[in-house]
Amino acid sequence: MKSKATKWLGTLLGCLSLVAVVSAIAGPVNTKCPFSGKAINKDATYSVGLCCGNCLKKFSKDPANYLGKVKAVAVNTTCPMSGKSVNPDCTATHKGDVVAFCGAGCQKKFKADPAAMIKQVKFARKTVNDKCPISGKPVNAKKTYSVGFCCNNCAGKFKKDPAKNIAKVN
After folding, report:
1. φ and ψ of 119, to 5 deg
2. Domain extent at residue 58
3. Which of 56, 83, 93, 165 has a CA between 20 and 30 Å from the CA of residue 70?
4. What is the pLDDT of residues 115-166, one digit of tens each?
Protein backbone atom coordinates (compact mmCIF):
# COMPACT_ATOMS: atom_id res chain seq x y z
CA MET A 1 0.00 0.00 0.00
CA LYS A 2 1.24 3.47 -0.81
CA SER A 3 1.64 5.96 1.97
CA LYS A 4 -0.34 9.21 1.97
CA ALA A 5 2.88 11.14 1.40
CA THR A 6 3.70 9.09 -1.72
CA LYS A 7 0.18 9.56 -3.11
CA TRP A 8 0.33 13.30 -2.37
CA LEU A 9 3.74 13.59 -4.05
CA GLY A 10 2.48 11.69 -7.10
CA THR A 11 -0.56 13.97 -7.36
CA LEU A 12 1.62 17.08 -7.02
CA LEU A 13 4.04 15.90 -9.73
CA GLY A 14 1.11 15.05 -12.01
CA CYS A 15 -0.37 18.53 -11.57
CA LEU A 16 2.98 20.20 -12.23
CA SER A 17 3.44 18.12 -15.39
CA LEU A 18 -0.01 19.14 -16.59
CA VAL A 19 0.75 22.82 -15.96
CA ALA A 20 4.00 22.49 -17.94
CA VAL A 21 2.22 20.84 -20.89
CA VAL A 22 -0.62 23.41 -20.92
CA SER A 23 1.89 26.29 -20.72
CA ALA A 24 3.87 24.89 -23.63
CA ILE A 25 0.76 24.42 -25.79
CA ALA A 26 -0.93 27.72 -24.89
CA GLY A 27 1.35 29.83 -27.10
CA PRO A 28 2.87 29.23 -30.53
CA VAL A 29 4.91 26.05 -30.88
CA ASN A 30 7.89 28.04 -32.16
CA THR A 31 9.89 31.05 -30.98
CA LYS A 32 11.37 32.11 -34.33
CA CYS A 33 9.66 32.76 -37.64
CA PRO A 34 10.13 29.72 -39.93
CA PHE A 35 10.66 32.01 -42.93
CA SER A 36 12.76 34.94 -41.65
CA GLY A 37 14.29 33.51 -38.47
CA LYS A 38 13.21 36.65 -36.58
CA ALA A 39 11.38 36.60 -33.24
CA ILE A 40 7.66 35.92 -33.56
CA ASN A 41 4.93 38.52 -33.24
CA LYS A 42 1.96 37.28 -31.17
CA ASP A 43 -0.44 38.94 -33.64
CA ALA A 44 0.95 37.06 -36.65
CA THR A 45 -0.08 33.45 -36.07
CA TYR A 46 -1.71 30.50 -37.76
CA SER A 47 -3.95 28.70 -35.29
CA VAL A 48 -5.82 25.45 -35.84
CA GLY A 49 -8.71 24.82 -33.47
CA LEU A 50 -9.30 21.35 -32.07
CA CYS A 51 -12.18 19.98 -30.02
CA CYS A 52 -10.39 18.49 -27.03
CA GLY A 53 -7.07 17.76 -25.36
CA ASN A 54 -6.85 14.29 -26.93
CA CYS A 55 -7.13 15.68 -30.47
CA LEU A 56 -4.68 18.48 -29.61
CA LYS A 57 -2.19 15.88 -28.38
CA LYS A 58 -2.56 13.80 -31.57
CA PHE A 59 -2.30 16.89 -33.79
CA SER A 60 0.79 18.19 -31.93
CA LYS A 61 2.63 14.90 -32.39
CA ASP A 62 2.26 14.96 -36.18
CA PRO A 63 0.83 18.25 -37.51
CA ALA A 64 1.91 17.49 -41.08
CA ASN A 65 -0.40 14.48 -41.09
CA TYR A 66 -3.45 16.54 -40.09
CA LEU A 67 -2.94 19.97 -41.70
CA GLY A 68 -4.26 18.72 -45.02
CA LYS A 69 -7.53 17.87 -43.26
CA VAL A 70 -8.02 21.40 -41.89
CA LYS A 71 -10.92 23.06 -43.69
CA ALA A 72 -10.39 26.81 -43.57
CA VAL A 73 -13.53 28.88 -43.10
CA ALA A 74 -14.21 32.60 -43.34
CA VAL A 75 -12.50 34.73 -40.72
CA ASN A 76 -15.43 37.18 -40.68
CA THR A 77 -19.17 37.05 -40.02
CA THR A 78 -20.11 40.43 -41.50
CA CYS A 79 -19.39 41.67 -44.99
CA PRO A 80 -16.44 44.10 -44.93
CA MET A 81 -18.08 46.23 -47.63
CA SER A 82 -21.73 46.42 -46.57
CA GLY A 83 -21.79 45.29 -42.93
CA LYS A 84 -24.51 42.74 -43.78
CA SER A 85 -24.41 39.04 -42.88
CA VAL A 86 -22.13 36.99 -45.11
CA ASN A 87 -22.98 34.30 -47.63
CA PRO A 88 -20.56 31.43 -46.82
CA ASP A 89 -20.47 30.49 -50.51
CA CYS A 90 -19.29 33.98 -51.58
CA THR A 91 -15.63 34.18 -50.55
CA ALA A 92 -12.17 35.33 -51.59
CA THR A 93 -8.76 34.42 -50.21
CA HIS A 94 -6.14 36.96 -49.19
CA LYS A 95 -2.76 35.78 -47.86
CA GLY A 96 -4.34 32.51 -46.87
CA ASP A 97 -7.32 34.02 -45.02
CA VAL A 98 -10.79 33.19 -46.32
CA VAL A 99 -12.97 36.32 -46.37
CA ALA A 100 -16.74 36.08 -46.91
CA PHE A 101 -19.09 38.65 -48.46
CA CYS A 102 -22.82 39.29 -48.64
CA GLY A 103 -22.82 39.00 -52.42
CA ALA A 104 -20.88 38.98 -55.67
CA GLY A 105 -20.74 42.80 -55.93
CA CYS A 106 -18.86 43.18 -52.66
CA GLN A 107 -16.67 40.19 -53.48
CA LYS A 108 -15.72 41.83 -56.80
CA LYS A 109 -14.82 45.13 -55.06
CA PHE A 110 -12.59 43.24 -52.63
CA LYS A 111 -10.85 41.26 -55.39
CA ALA A 112 -10.07 44.50 -57.26
CA ASP A 113 -7.81 45.70 -54.39
CA PRO A 114 -7.53 43.07 -51.63
CA ALA A 115 -4.47 44.69 -49.98
CA ALA A 116 -6.47 47.86 -49.27
CA MET A 117 -9.80 46.17 -48.57
CA ILE A 118 -8.46 43.63 -46.05
CA LYS A 119 -8.21 46.51 -43.56
CA GLN A 120 -12.02 46.65 -43.50
CA VAL A 121 -12.40 43.00 -42.48
CA LYS A 122 -13.48 42.47 -38.87
CA PHE A 123 -11.80 39.20 -37.88
CA ALA A 124 -14.28 37.19 -35.82
CA ARG A 125 -12.24 34.06 -35.14
CA LYS A 126 -8.81 33.17 -33.78
CA THR A 127 -8.57 29.85 -35.62
CA VAL A 128 -8.64 29.12 -39.35
CA ASN A 129 -11.21 26.38 -38.87
CA ASP A 130 -14.44 25.81 -37.00
CA LYS A 131 -14.44 22.00 -36.98
CA CYS A 132 -11.76 19.73 -35.52
CA PRO A 133 -9.73 18.10 -38.35
CA ILE A 134 -9.54 14.87 -36.33
CA SER A 135 -13.04 14.38 -34.88
CA GLY A 136 -15.14 16.78 -36.97
CA LYS A 137 -16.64 18.26 -33.79
CA PRO A 138 -16.84 22.05 -33.17
CA VAL A 139 -13.53 23.53 -31.99
CA ASN A 140 -12.83 24.52 -28.39
CA ALA A 141 -11.21 27.98 -28.46
CA LYS A 142 -8.88 26.89 -25.64
CA LYS A 143 -7.54 23.91 -27.61
CA THR A 144 -5.36 25.31 -30.38
CA TYR A 145 -2.17 24.48 -32.20
CA SER A 146 -0.51 27.77 -33.13
CA VAL A 147 2.53 28.63 -35.25
CA GLY A 148 3.96 32.14 -34.81
CA PHE A 149 5.53 34.40 -37.43
CA CYS A 150 7.42 37.69 -37.40
CA CYS A 151 4.81 39.41 -39.58
CA ASN A 152 1.57 38.83 -41.46
CA ASN A 153 3.45 38.47 -44.76
CA CYS A 154 5.23 35.37 -43.44
CA ALA A 155 1.98 34.10 -41.89
CA GLY A 156 0.34 34.55 -45.31
CA LYS A 157 3.07 32.49 -47.00
CA PHE A 158 2.44 29.70 -44.51
CA LYS A 159 -1.36 29.87 -44.84
CA LYS A 160 -1.18 29.39 -48.61
CA ASP A 161 0.09 25.82 -48.11
CA PRO A 162 0.38 24.92 -44.43
CA ALA A 163 0.80 21.18 -45.04
CA LYS A 164 3.90 21.89 -47.16
CA ASN A 165 5.32 24.66 -44.95
CA ILE A 166 4.95 22.93 -41.56
CA ALA A 167 8.33 21.25 -42.14
CA LYS A 168 9.96 24.70 -41.83
CA VAL A 169 8.67 25.09 -38.26
CA ASN A 170 11.11 23.95 -35.61
Report:
1. -65, -20
2. 28-168
3. 83
4. 899 999 998 888 999 999 999 999 998 999 999 999 989 999 999 999 999 9
